[in-house]
Amino acid sequence: MSSEPPTTYAGDVAPDAAYAALAADDDAVLVDVRTTAEWSYVGVPDLAALGKRVVFVEWQRFPDGAVNGDFVAQLQDAGLPDGAPIYFICRSGVRSVAAAEAATHAGLGPAYNVLEGFEGPHDEHGHRAVSGWKNSGLPWRQG
Questions:
Q1: Using CA atoms, how far apart are residues 109 and 20, in angstroms rounded to an integer?
Q2: Alpha-carbon distance values, 25 to 19, 37, 84 (Å)
Q3: b/e 95-110 (16+ beta carbons within 10 angstroms → b)
Q4: Ranges of the chain with pLDDT below 50
Q5: What's the CA gap between 86 and 111, in Å, rounded?
Q6: Bridge partner list, 115
Q7: What is the rounded distance in angstroms from the CA atom of residue 122 to the CA atom of residue 143?
Q8: pLDDT at site 140
Q9: Second label for 69, Cα 20 to 30 Å away, from 36, 58, 63, 116?
Q10: Helix (H, G, I), strand (E, B) or coil at 11
Q11: Residues 6+ apart with CB under 8 A from 21
């Protein structure tokens, strides 16, 4: 048996499944890894109905897009319960995979990626209006 932490993450979950898991487990946490600009101008998931707060930690810094070298430390500073399931969300489900992998490698989690992210992929008109947390009818608010 290896003492090395796993280098991948616990798996991918649809936005509605992530919300259900957050509702079912008092320790489960949602971490939004988008940028400060996205939180401010696009909106954020709202967990108030569950009596929870969203944790906000940028995976990439705004405005230069550099990977946040303090990501794991900031995640640890957020006071997540030991062994708590962590659900990572970004815009479309790409940065959140990297965040889940980094958390897993640091021994946090289990860490999950929220598929489709907050806004989902583009539709045929180039709009992010077909899926994701925001377009699935899950609670959110303007930043």
A1: 17
A2: 10, 30, 9
A3: bbbbbbbbbbbeebbb
A4: 1
A5: 5
A6: none
A7: 21
A8: 97
A9: 116
A10: strand
A11: 13, 28, 85, 87, 112
Q: Where are the alpha helices (DSSP H) in the chain?
A: 15-24, 36-41, 71-77, 95-105
* Angstrom distance (rounded) from CA 133 to CA 110: 21
DSSP state of 18: H
> What is the rounded CA–CA span in Å between residue 119 and residue 42?
9
Please state the length of the chain.
Answer: 143
* Contact between residue 113 and residue 91 where contact means Cβ atoms under 8 Å apart: no
User: What integer pLDDT is reported at residue 3 of this predicted model?
Assistant: 54
Backbone angles phi, psi at 2, to 5 degrees: -80, 145
- What was the pLDDT predicted at 36? 96
Contact 99, 90 (CB under 8 A): yes
54-84 confidence digits (pLDDT tens): 999 999 999 999 999 999 999 999 999 999 9
